[in-house]
Amino acid sequence: MALLIASVVALGLGPLLVSRGQRYPWLFAAVDLGIPLVLLAFVALEIAPEAWELAGALSLAALAVGAFLPSVFERLFSPDAAGRFFRSKEPNDPHPGMAAALFLGLLGLAIHAAFDGAALAVDAADHDHGSLGWGVVLHRVSDGASVVWLSQGRLGPRGGWFGIGLIGAATVLGYVLANAILPFFTTRAAGLLLALLGGTLLHVTLGHSKTLARLLGHHRHA
């Protein structure tokens, strides 16, 4: 439960990171380098070996699926996808589909947050390890920054905080649902779930630099 609270609080650091990053670009650079390295160490040294111990070689397949699956959601909820399926009702709107893109972007982050909540539940069920949970907490800072980047210009600061609240609520929902089904999992199933969620952290590690670099570049040109 403590890590669940910490993960929600960490979301609130995202807007602070964006705000301070305008004045101190080195802050982005430090976070950009530090968080991916820590997450990679968590996955390689803690999560993957434990998943292998529980589920064997199948854990490698689950890890790969976890690393790939978020890319599917990102494509489904991308601005380009929104532009194909939604059109602005305003004929002179210079950014057709942008409102839909914003909505879909937040929805995609909420789905990912639900997986994060499940990861926290898995971590809480394993009292000897905390790497998965701390990995979630660390990357929530960049999640909060992403919400701010998605909402600025269209929704303003209040919209950003609404998005952060949505992500926090999705995290809690994922945590509650995972806690409800975990007692029915076999040891192998628990190992596969651990590997799957570890794979999503691996995806975050690979995509983290691109997100923060985009944020930094946006504010430099603002």
Description:
The protein is mostly helical. The protein is globular, with a radius of gyration of 18 Å. The chain has helices at residues 2-11, 13-23, 25-55, 58-76, 79-85, 98-125, 131-151, 156-181, 187-221. The protein has one domain. It starts with a helix and ends with a helix. It has 9 helices and no strands. The longest helix has 35 residues, at 187-221. The model is unreliable at 85-96 and 218-222 (pLDDT under 50).
Comma- or semicolon-separated keywords:
about 0% strand; about 85% helix; globular; about 220 residues; mainly alpha; single chain
Oligomer category: single chain
**Largest beta-sheet characterization:** none
- Class by SSE composition: mainly alpha
> Proportion of β residues?
under 5%
Topology pattern, helix = H, strand = E:
HHHHHHHHH
User: What would you call the shape?
Assistant: globular
- Calculate the mean pLDDT score and round it: 75
Radius of gyration, in Å, reads: 18 Å
Determine the fraction of residues in helical runs and give it as a percent range: over 70%
- How many helical elements? 9
Q: How many E-type strands?
A: 0
User: Kindly, what is the distance between the CA atoms of the first and last residues, rounded to a whole number of angstroms?
Assistant: 39 Å
Q: Which regions are unreliable across 5 or more consecutive residues at pLDDT < 50?
A: 85-96, 218-222
